[in-house]
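In response to a reviewer's request, we include the raw inputs and outputs for one of the modeled complexes. The two entities were modeled together in a single run.
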Amino acid sequence: MQVVEIRGVTTDSDTDCAAATPRRSVLERLLAPIAALCLFSMMALTFATVIARYFLNRPIAGDSEIQSFLLGLIIFSALPLVTLRQRHIAVRAFAVLLKGRALALQHLFVLALTGIGFAFIAYIVFLQGRTLGEEGITTNYLDIPEAPFAYAFSALTAMAALAACGLLIGFLRKSTADAGTDAREPSPE
Amino acid sequence: MITALTGFVVMLLGFFMGVPLAIVLFAVGFFGFAIIHPAGLEAAMAMAGQQVLGLTLDFQFSVLPLFILTGSFVNHAALSDDLYETAHRWLGHHRGGLAMATIAACAGFASICHSSIATAATMARVAVPSMRRYRYADSLSTGTVAAGGALGMLVPPSGALIVYGLLTEQDIAKLFIAAIGPVLASIAVYFAVIRTVTFFKPAAGPPAERAAWDTRWRGLYKVWGVVALFLLVMGGITFGIFTATEAGGIGAAGALILAILRRKMSWAIFYEALVDASITTAMVFSVIVGALVLNQFVNISGMSEAVLAFIRALHATPMEIILVIIAFYVLLGMFIEGFALIFLTVPIFVPIVSALGFDLIWWGIVLVIVVEMSVLHPPLGLNIFVLKSLLPEVPLKQIYWGVIPFWAGDFARLAVVLAFPPLVLYLPRLFLS
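The model returned the following structure tokens for the whole complex.
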């Protein structure tokens, strides 16, 4: 589907800023393989389900439950990567008109709100996980408890918040360093 | 109502400041819900938590990542050259024939790639040099690619339709089948646009040499993979052999096999395609979660009922109201486009359209056509800028001039879909009643 589509709508990737934080590589190396593996497993499982049902007449037990956990894992493990690569869907029709200090402030504002927003969502998911744990909610067929997944999703969302913070700090450092360099440069006269 | 309006203003402010849609929609939905609901923050916390986990743990929604993955694999299978070559052999000898071939190839590519921008970008690389060789006007060639790319949003299995289906709880299989009639009508309208342009300006699209029949059939043989994948996925859905989600799995596996058979797949590309598709999935789902939380706020705010009461007081017919909504979309589409337009407006307008008694499958198709128009027209026009970035030597003004006839064509196909709802609804009722 819209692989390039959404990237095109949304991205003004700030690679300098993203590269400024060392967390990028660690998070990428940790989470990208998990997301990739889960997505491949989802594809293989769906394919196998169809083959098993139509050709072997033997449905795979609990496939939809495994599928749903895979979906959650794909979304939440890739969420910090979306933040790091600054590929969140956003309307930038007016932000692109900004320059200099106004643009820097807008960038800081957006990163701060992204960090706060994801931290808050992580907290909400954590609370939901606690409720699921207290009520002992499990899946219908395979009897898998849902709470641990909710806690994992909460932790991954918190990583997205941390990623935004990392970008924010990187951006501030870079701005300060640039300002320092500008101040040291001799005047043209 | 005041809370709802304030929420709407805050939402627009957030959008235009460039805050991620996921955060804006979620925040406005959450705090709006907390203000209106008698149980306040506690109720909002529970609601938001349920929405987040409800969506991300519902296996039916795995349809989206699977189709995203299909597109990711297809992009690496280098199918666009063969598609264009085949369409060229069949249509190239007509006046404006290469432009028509481009539209046909765009529709073919989009049917397995599911991305409007990827379609436009790929076809710009393949079709524009060929049209230049035959001395086509740059305005016609670039306008055609931009319009053909936009058409990609509607061609089933379409990502835009999947997102609409997830947001409105409509049957995705029905949406896919409903899009077939409008896509064929759109191709016919675009062909008519090209014929009209070249009628008044024959030098803009001179005919190429006529290909022999055996060359044409050989061309069709080259694109067997695309045809097979499309027929497998859409045929399976249409005849109820598998669900939309299963079709996604079959499509992704098929696209992977196709790429391997064409020797276009390596481990590095395979891994990158998986990671990229995962990232796009997270990107889209985070906004869907936000839109669903906003939906809850809109539901309890009474905003839809108030707007509906206001509209009813005007004593306008339902179709007149639809036309006003579409005019609003066209205006809004000048500043917000593509998926952002869908996420922003669906929670607000779908309850109204439903209350007016219109079929939401039909509205989904109308909506996607209007959103397609948003990527084609000034001042933003995403596809126009994609072409400009790929073909920097073509002046922006020429691309705009090239797109204008297609934009007129868009109004024509929109009018057809509005005037003849059976064009949309007949096939889903026939196959999935």
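As requested, we also summarize the result in words. Chain A touches chain B through 69 residues (CB under 8 Å). Confidence is low (pLDDT under 50) at residues 1-23 of chain A.
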